Records
---
Amino acid sequence: MEVLKNKKTLQDFIERQKEMGKRIGFAPTMGALHKGHLSLYEAARADNDLVISSIFVNPTQFNNPEDLEKYPRDINRDILILENSGLVDAVYIPEVVDIYPEKAESQHYDFDGLENEMEGKSRPGHFDGVGTVVEELFRQVKPDNAYFGEKDFQQLAIIKKMVEKKKLPIKIIGVPIYRAESGLALSSRNQRLHEDRRDASKVIYKTLKKVNELFKINPVSEIKEKVQDVFDNQKGMQLEYFLIADEETLKETDFFYKGKNYRAFIVVIVDGVRLIDNMHLD
Ligand code: PAF
């Protein structure tokens, strides 16, 4: 596996691969790799000649400096995971200056309102930061296909919108959420949970499955009350939000309209760790 530590080495590498006509699959990350990331590489492996990942903790997408500082970083462990997986041909580990040559600041995007829903309400500027770094990485890596986890479903929708608006010749592929045996969606933040809290967190997945059973035959307002009750009775957990939204617009719905696709979204704070999850409703 090639470890590319700056823009120049990446560019030389990409140029060689393009000359050989290789199809590039790309999965950007912020490191702290886990099996959820490996599922992105597996999907990329299946569709491309070459799989590239990046590891870059993007400062512009953190609206809280403490969160940026606390973000888990262990580059040697990550490189080892990538090497041992045998799924990745090259990893790009840029410095801040490779992505932001002048000043680490975001561009402003119009994602047709997707940015104002859910995470956009509690994390102002977050999606501008994501759009900025992903657009720059796309311009440098020049992938044919790019892979993002459905756990961050709003992020996935926003990246699809950016690619459409900027007319970038890249196909964006959403990869289903990778769950631990308990049902907990894998996330780098899970590292900050004590073992017993990780186990208790399976209630999040259980609740989403219950919501799927109740949806279409119960009013959304009642489902929301039931979800609130579940978390009111969980020690050390606070429900930040739960809602059901149209998968395309991400706008919250109070009703089920035939012909539309819906998804349940949830954010729970478990002992100070913010866990997000979602589920397609059928
Ligand atoms: O999902 C992530 O890890 C990040 O938001 C991404 C897409 C790598 C951009 O920094």
---
Amino acid sequence: MRRRWNRSGRAGLVAAVAVLAAPLSGPAPAAADSVVVGGSLASVDDHPWVVALGSRDRFGSERSGQFCGGVVVGERTVLTAAHCVDEEVLGVALSRVPDLRVISGRDDLRSSGKGRETAVSGVRVNPGYDPATNAGDLATLTLAESLPASAVLPVARPGSAEEKPGSKATVFGWGDTTGNGTYSSRLRSVGVTVLEDATCRRAYPGSSVGRYEAETMLCAGDARGGRDACQGDSGGPLVAGGKLIGLVSWGSGCGRASSPGVYTRVSAVAP
Ligand code: ARG
């Protein structure tokens, strides 16, 4: 279970902050997870609901302290992954992180002049979150100040077409584009397809990596591999048809054809 997030304290997290695997043209290389390249740049002007979670105190200033993603679902409400606010990720208990911020309107995390950083006044971890299986991986952040209504992304309804297998979706995140520690500071996105629950059930029957449970999880990726979220994208949005359907949660490696991405099924878990 500890291994699953690929975290080993602060240095481990920084090294693991990676982005979306490349939309490769052919099958993913065997070690796709160690060569995270490509993807394409996305703009927060087009997707104003994509936010970064940052703590300069914990993760340094260079990339605005980014360590996870999130998504604006209400003027004062941001959803992220429950595991993003775990001690395992933060290195200390959340109560000891003095400067947790939601960063909005900033494509390039190096340009601290653009966009805004909003303090978080409350964090509610989904009471159903199970770190052993990753079930229900969602936390709700309440912001100290409102964001514009234009930045709010609607959540898909349970069982809607957007979250059905075959639905075309896009996942967003910030991070490493080479796998060698060359961190992109700019927002990226990649297109994936919602896959059958059976595909993820087969891929993740239950191991140290996690166990797929369709009630609270959503399976998405590319049958050929190569298109995926990766470490550091956690908590960021998976969007289809203009609706939020998932949050980046977990997976085995990144971009492997046989190991799709697993997302929090927001329609089932969000309060
Ligand atoms: N758990 C990772 C994080 O904390 C996200 C992993 C997503 N992996 C994947 N293959 N889709 O950033």
